[in-house]
Amino acid sequence: MKTRIITAVLALIVFIPLIIIGDLPLLVLSIALGIVAMSEVLKMTHTLLVSFEALISYIGVVAIILPKDFWQSGFWPATVNSQSVIYGLAFLFLARTVFAKKSFNFQDAGTLFLAMVYIGTGFHYFYLADFRGLSVLFFGMLLVWLTDSFAYFVGKAFGKHKLSPNLSPNKTWEGSVGGTVIAVVVVVTLYALTNALPYAVWDLVIMAVLLSIAGQIGDLIESALKRHFGVKDSGRILPGHGGILDRFDSMLVVMPLMAVLGMLQ
Question: In this structure, what is the dihedral angle of CA atoms 246, 250, 256, 260, given to the nearest 10 degrees?
Fold first, then answer.
């Protein structure tokens, strides 16, 4: 527990100022987190971090995270954008299955490509949410943090029915529902009183509920990924907490959903 607390404090000391500063420092942080997260998937799949497929994965993650104005800077031809780059990388993944013979197959290509899009998209919208303002970013972050925290405490106190025993044996339906209810009430009340976002109360409630549930699904997605590859933690970069994917699993789902809900426009 002591190690977890020390790691959390040190991470927040670095993390919070970069969020507040935003712009290039936060973009660099988002790219660094994306690369580390992709490295964790590569290690799970026993892929060499200096291999051709690893290089493709890293380039893809960075290309997806970069904001749209990077591709509209005039430095690149008009036909070059994140979509065309991603398609090109998909082709390279597929071509690799031809030339690598049995060492890299379609299943390997699909796993790395999906992980690349999943991680890159999550951190792209994480950066975009901050670009739209701290109030927008913290709406998603607070929901994730509060849902996770109160789901643990409520589940510990009242949990009887397992939410997903095969993926996460300690999670319960009582904890899940309790975490969502408390997080939604706290966050919506805070934002309604401060008028930090231009939405009606019931709009905030609907978005908060959806994001809270999505965050828990994101947590289970990462649990399924680890269970599939037989690992306990995605990495060891954060002592007591695991890897980057372990800490950002919910964010990688919540931030893109905020864009779908129109909160990042």
Answer: 170
Q: Which helix (H) or strand (E) holds 179?
A: helix 173-194
- Residue 75 to residue 84: CA distance in whole angstroms: 15
Is there a contact between 43 and 128 (Cβ–Cβ < 8 Å)?
Answer: no
Of 242, 224, 220, residue with least CA distance to 233: 242
pLDDT digits (tens, 9 = 90+) for 53-82: 999 999 999 999 998 878 776 677 777 888
Say which residue the tokens 């397992």 belong to: 162
Burial of 239 (0-12, 13-18, 19+ CB in 10 A): exposed
How far is the C-alpha of 138 from the C-alpha of 212, rounded, in Å?
13
Packing angle between helix 106-132 and helix 251-260, nearest 10 degrees?
60
Whole-angstrom CA distances from 16 to 2, 89, 225 are: 21, 33, 28
Q: Which parts of 84-125 are beta strand (E)? A: none
On average, the pLDDT of the chain sits at 88
In angstroms, the CA 114 to CA 219 distance is 17
Alpha-carbon gap, residue 109 to 88, rounded angstroms = 13
**DSSP letter string over 14-61?**
HHHHHHHH-HHHHHHHHHHHHHHHHHHHHHHTT--TTSHHHHHHHHHH
How far does CA 62 lie from the centroid of its chain?
Answer: 14
**Residue 10 pLDDT greater than 90, yes or no:** no
